[in-house]
Amino acid sequence: MKRILWIPGMIALLGVGCGHRAAQTAAPHATAAGSALVESSGGKQLGMPGTMLPQPLVVQVNDASGNAVTGALVEFSGPAGVSFDPAVALSDSSGQVSTNVTMGGGSGRFELTAASPDKSGKKFFLKVTELSGSYQQQVGYEVNEKYCARCHNSESSAQRVSNYDNLSVKPHSFADGNAMNKLSNSDLNAIITHGGPALNRSALMPPYGWTLSKAETQSVIAYIRLVSDPPYRPAGVTYGKQ
Ligand code: HEC
Q1: Homologous superfamily of the 36-132 domain (CATH)
Q2: Which position among 16, 88, 226, 241 has the lowest Cβ density within 10 Å, counted as fewest Cβ atoms?
Q3: What are the extents of the domains in the chain?
């Protein structure tokens, strides 16, 4: 009696085991090859360490004349700790591959790579940068989107129309490390709190001392430091010459 009861259970376990393994190891078989990879969407996102980015990363495989290629193999890779679901896939009928990216530990800029083999098997690549930030930097990102991006980001988004083109003095993008890294934390604090004139700059940069709490101002400074390219190196730290 006992033995009979065990059998359905064992069959069920075997069934689950096989299905799982098949899904994990079935390497997709490419039916075509392209010659270039382009980013469709999902680059330059800000996620928290160890969590999945809000949007999937979508790349497209094109042939030499820029037409989408269906059935080409795309492989994603990144620094240790970053994972992709799926990590390997075939381009769909619009030439695209979509993957969910989970960030590794630590904050900063993460360079991800998508690779695809051409007809001769030689790989071509696309590099995509994603950001991973602390909770404070996430808050700073929200502050930026709500108050700053309409002037500091020259591109409009679905949520916000850029005012950049209307400004007679052009602010810099927070990603412009050459402009932002020259300003110390106390410079940033002064211009954000008291407006442009605090640093002898244009009054088109409004004061935010009445709008933002001290913590919010610190968060947006932490966000500016995170996104700057080249990266910010705090004064007082000496780096060895190469
Ligand atoms: C109404 C448009 C506008 C908004 C909104 C705005 N800024 Fe500015 N900002 C400017 C302009 C214009 C300058 C350039 C001033 C100059 O160089 O004389 C500037 C300059 C700056 C600078 C100096 C570096 C640079 O870009 O030249 C910092 C830092 C800055 N803003 C931070 C912020 C932050 C943080 C916010 C949001 C809390 C913000 N700004 C919102 C217009 C704006």
Answers
A1: Immunoglobulins (2.60.40.10)
A2: 241
A3: 36-132, 135-227
User: Can you name the CATH fold of 135-227?
Assistant: Cytochrome Bc1 Complex; Chain D, domain 2 (1.10.760)
Contact yes or no for 96/58 (Cβ under 8 A): yes
**Which residue shows structure tokens 């991973």?**
132
Condensed to tens digits (0 to 9), the pLDDT of residues 184-236 reads: 999 999 999 999 999 999 999 999 999 999 999 999 999 999 999 898 987 66
Q: Which residue has the tokens 């916000």?
A: 160
227 CB near ligand 1 (under 6 Å): no
Q: Does the Cβ of 124 fall within 6 Å of ligand 1?
A: no
Q: How far apart are CA 33 and CA 71, in angstroms?
A: 7
| CA 119–ligand 1 middle distance (angstroms) | 49
Residue 237 pLDDT class (50, 70, 90 cuts): low
| Ligand 1 atom, smallest distance to 169 CA | 12
